[in-house]
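User: Can you help me understand a structure? I only have the sequence.
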Amino acid sequence: MASCTSQPEAIKGSFGFDLNFLKKYQKVITLEENNGKSQLILLPDLQGRVMTSTANGLEGNSYGWLNYDLITSGKFEEHFSPFGGEERFWMGPEGGQYAIFFKKGSEFTFDNWYTPKGIDTEAYEIISQSSNEVLFQKKMSLLNYQDFKFDIEVNRKISILNQTQIEKDLGLDMPANINFVGYQSNNEIVNVGEQAWSKKSGLLSIWILGMYMPSKNTTVVLPYKDSLALNTSYFGTIPPGKLKITDKHVMFNGDGTSRFKLGIPPKNVLPYAGSYDADKKTLTIINYTFEGDSTYVNSEWREQENPYEGDVVNSYNDGPLENGGQLGPFYELESSSSTKELKPGESIKHTHKTYHFEGSFEGLNKISKQLLNKDLNELN
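Assistant: Let's start by predicting it. Here is the structure, written out as tokens:
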């Protein structure tokens, strides 16, 4: 009688573990390149978000942060359902007099903050699907703080990239002994209503956010140019010693232990942001659409003097709320589209690209120096 061998159980923290876990609770789509070493997990019932990815197959590290308890429960939270995911679709502005997360007349506090269901808990329709690309679509209506109604069609295409595409996109020769995964989302919001969208009644932007695993040895690196006008006023004063600001970079420890958010405005934008996990020898890079526009929605939680002078790229470090609870822990890398007044049938588009590189320190440092203009030897 022939003996049979069972497959070893996937280890928590691996892509295989997360894939098996998510299959128990969600409809799962996987995209593959590089003979299966590069993979993504997409969830159509959660806005077509990229839950996680890997650069080294089923046994490789899983890069996205997952809220296992909330996913297992199958429940939705009142204000925001932090299921996780390293690339999800939102829209702005979050706060201010044109906010879509606050009802008209409410104070800008966490108790009054509610994420619209169309970007939090509702499913997106699969329009087309292949081994390396999926197109999602969603129609929704949103009310902003002025009670203006937006009728919207969202189109969201996720594509996994091969090595040739990655090298071309980044102007990079892939170093030896480096595993990699790269993907992009092409996002579009269309005004499908009968009314034009105007600055006077409020505008929208595309907002892409990635939730990642925090650690005490992870450093978020935000390059910038010119005289820095860093926005740190989102959630109160950032604790002393949390930020390190040089003449070229803003950096902080992505440890998920202290809640704060910061933003880089258009005049300071460079095309990349990223993070480095020294324990796992993993370099994460994001790249996003920026064509020199200056009209960005402002998502600060307050009445604003300049509601269209917001940020292009943001980073958030999760931490305890005032009530002692916590959404994560995780940290985020985010990018936003510019905004504009849209007549019926017109649209805004935004592309957000994510890359993970893992392997030899020398190879990772070469990539970091080229894309982030940062020597990893300088990070503590």
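Now, to help you interpret it: Residues 156 and 187 are 5 Å apart (CA to CA). The first strand starts at residue 29 and ends at 33. Let me know which part you'd like to focus on.
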